[in-house]
Amino acid sequence: MTTLDQLAIKHKADKSSLYHNFAAKYDKLLSPFRDTFTNVLEIGVGGGQSVKMWADYFPNATIHGADIEGSCNACESYSGRIKFHQLDQGNVVQLSALLPFSPFDLIIDDGNHWWREQIVTFTSLFPMVKSGGIYVVEDSVTAYWKEYKNNGISCIDLFKSLIDDVNLNGARGSIPVNPSPDFGNWEQGWHRREDCFSNLSPVESIHFLNSLIVAFKR
C-alpha cells in the first residue's frame, strides 16, 4: 500500500520527508483510519498539494480545504471529493460557516501559523471534531518565534494548560453505583474510571511531536 510519504512526495507536499518530514509521523497515527475516515478538513490550501495527498490517502473521505485565497479553489479539479471553502481562519464567524459540513474525523491546521489564529481556529473548530476524532496543529514551532506573536499566549501555552484538563485538574472520582468488591478505598477517590467523573474534558489526550500537536477528542 502506498505510504503517506510517497503520496506527499508525489504531490510535492511540504509534509514529505524531503522537507518537514511530517508524513511518516502522520502515517503512524492515521493508517488505521485510511478506509474509515469520511470527512477531513485542512486549514491552509496553497497550491493544493496537501488536499490532493489526503484525497489519495483517504479513499472514502470528502476532503475539505479552507483558505483565505479564493484562487485555491483550483484544488477541486483534482477530485470530486475535494471541496474548497474560502475563509479567514482568524474570523470566528467565517469559521462557523464550516459547521454544516461537520462533524469531521480529522482537522489539520496548516494555516498562517500566527499565535492568535492557531488558538481561534482550535477553539472554534474542535467542537466540530467527531467523538474519537483528531485535531492537529502543524508548525507549532512558531510558538517560539516572536515574529508570529500577535497574542498574549501561543498555542503551545494553550495546550500546556489543557494538560491539566486531561488530568481533570486532580479531581477525585465519585463512588460508582456498584463499586467493585475487588478494590477498596473507593471513598478516597483513587480510582480513575471516567464514569466516576462529571467534569470530563472534551480533550482525551494530547501528543506533542516536533512542531506537531495532536489532540484526540473524547
Short characterization:
This protein has 218 residues and is α/β, with parallel strands linked by helices.
Using the 3D structure, state the CATH architecture.
3-Layer(aba) Sandwich
- In whole angstroms, how far apart are the ends? 30 Å
What best-fitting shape do the alpha-carbon axes yield?
globular
In CATH, the topology is named Rossmann fold
Q: What fraction of residues sit in β-strands?
A: 15-25%
Tally of helical runs = 6
Walkthrough of the structure:
The chain has 218 residues and is an alpha/beta fold. It is built from six helices and seven strands; from the N terminus they run H-H-E-H-E-E-H-E-H-E-H-E-E. The chain has helices at residues 4-10, 23-30, 49-57, 92-96, 115-125, 155-166; strands at 39-43, 62-67, 82-86, 104-109, 129-138, 203-209, 212-217. A seven-stranded mixed beta sheet has the order 3-2-1-4-5-7-6, with helices on both faces. The longest helix has 12 residues, at 155-166. 36% of the residues are buried. The mean pLDDT is 97.
